[in-house]
């Protein structure tokens, strides 16, 4: 699917379909999201591998709150802390998760449940660690997650029921219990946009709207050639892990 979608890329090629909320010239949302992935520190973050025991804790917390976007953001926050040589302990791991959940979700966190499941006696320790994370990151905890790109594509596909259904099924597959922790951890080594396109390409072979969006994503990247290589590599690895 990826190869066929990119056969005829040209400077005047596909642009995202018009949408009053997301794709007007005034918003530049896709360009903004993709440009964040071109920043130097973003590449550094993707290259950091979290220890297995930390990932295990995060997956356990996710089983309580059921949010793949929270898991994704908390992993990125921890990688940012590691990049700053900040010490990582159990409380910091939990606080990164609760902080990410408050950022990504609207409903209230059950701190008592999280504390009990993690054998934490004092909830205030989590609150203090959240403040410590905010201080360490200078309150810059904005993180692009796959859900941002899924939402963008879903809005663009508003008049394409088949395309919208493909996007929503791919979105669900990222948070599905059938997706192994190993596969999720593999995906987290790639930019969010590549994860989204890889999941869509993995599950579905042909759709004109999706093909056009793959072209549009590639054309918006600073290094389109390297981006395409990453996309193909991620899709290949995803297939090998789920076959």
Notes on the protein architecture:
The protein has 243 residues and is mostly helical. Helices cover 66% and strands 0% of the residues. It has 14 helices and no strands. The protein has helices spanning 2-5, 29-37, 40-46, 52-65, 68-83, 90-104, 111-117, 124-136, 146-156, 161-175, 181-187, 192-203, 208-219, 224-242. Helix 4 packs antiparallel against helix 5, helix 6 crosses helix 8 (124-136) and helix 11 (181-187) packs antiparallel against helix 14 (224-242). The longest helix has 19 residues, at 224-242. The radius of gyration is 18 Å and the shape is globular.
Number of DSSP strands?
Answer: 0
Helix fraction bin: 55-70%
Q: Describe the biggest sheet?
A: none
Distance between the termini: 17 Å
Q: What's the pLDDT, averaged over the residues? A: 82
In short:
The chain is mainly α.
Features of the shown structure:
mainly alpha; 0% strand; globular
Explain the layout of strands and helices.
Blueprint: H1 2-5, H2 29-37, H3 40-46, H4 52-65, H5 68-83, H6 90-104, H7 111-117, H8 124-136, H9 146-156, H10 161-175, H11 181-187, H12 192-203, H13 208-219, H14 224-242
Helix pairs in contact: 4-5, 4-6, 5-6, 6-8, 9-10, 9-12, 10-12, 11-14, 12-14
């Amino acid at each position: 699917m990826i190869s066929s979608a990119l056969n005829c890329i040209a400077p005047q090629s596909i642009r995202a379909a018009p949408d009053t909320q997301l794709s007007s010239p005034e918003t530049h949302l896709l360009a903004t999201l993709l440009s964040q992935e071109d920043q130097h520190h973003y590449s550094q973050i993707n290259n950091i591998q979290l220890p297995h025991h930390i990932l295990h804790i995060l997956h356990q917390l996710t089983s309580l709150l059921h949010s793949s976007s929270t898991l994704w953001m908390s992993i990125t926050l921890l990688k940012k802390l590691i990049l700053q040589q900040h010490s990582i302990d159990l409380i910091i791991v939990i606080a990164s998760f609760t902080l990410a959940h408050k950022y990504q979700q609207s409903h209230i966190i059950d701190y008592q449940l999280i504390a009990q499941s993690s054998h934490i006696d004092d909830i205030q320790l989590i609150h203090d660690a959240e403040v410590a994370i905010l201080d360490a990151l200078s309150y810059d905890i904005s993180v692009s997650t796959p859900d941002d790109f899924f939402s963008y594509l879903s809005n663009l596909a508003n008049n394409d029921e088949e395309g919208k259904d493909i996007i929503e099924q791919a979105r669900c597959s990222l948070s599905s219990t059938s997706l192994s922790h190993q596969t999720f951890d593999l995906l987290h080594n790639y930019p969010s946009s590549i994860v989204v396109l890889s999941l869509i390409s993995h599950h579905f072979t042909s759709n004109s709207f999706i093909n056009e969006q793959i072209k549009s994503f590639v054309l918006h990247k600073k290094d389109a050639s390297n981006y395409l290589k990453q996309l193909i590599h991620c899709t290949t690895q995803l297939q090998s892990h789920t076959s």
